[in-house]
Amino acid sequence: MSERTEQILFETRKKLKLADVDRMRLRKTFTDVDVTFPGGKKTVQFRDERDMSNLLSVAVAGIALAAGGKATDPLVYRTKDNENQNVKAAEMVAIGMEVMAKKQAVVSAAWAHKDAIKALNTVGEVEAYDITTGWPE
Fold this sequence. Notes:
By secondary structure, this protein is of the alpha+beta class. Helix content is about 60%, strand content about 15%. The protein has a two-stranded antiparallel sheet with strand order 1-2. A two-stranded antiparallel sheet has the order 3-4. Strand 3 (about 75-80) and strand 4 form a beta hairpin. Helix 1 packs antiparallel against helix 3 and helix 2 crosses helix 3. It starts with a helix and ends in a 9-residue tail after the last helix.
């Protein structure tokens, strides 16, 4: 195999491995999250962008209320079990921050994998690199 062909193979393998990381990140991003609401532990559904938008809209409403001096005003969030959770604005902000911190940990793990893959020097190293480790639970 020529040096040029080896280089093309190497770069192709890297791109494929990086794409595998992106797919893993998406799978891990769009998973439900258990959090503690005032009434107990509940599951925040996180199937897709709509679920993310729902969570963020209620959390942002909490931020707006808290910024306006109304941190104890009530908000309602519906959990995966289709039960309304009555929370104070400040509580919803904290819940939103908890969920988003867990999602950011997934993104950070993806960045670490991508940086590690970019630093690899051979096709064998790329093929041996395990993208299934180092993700948050």
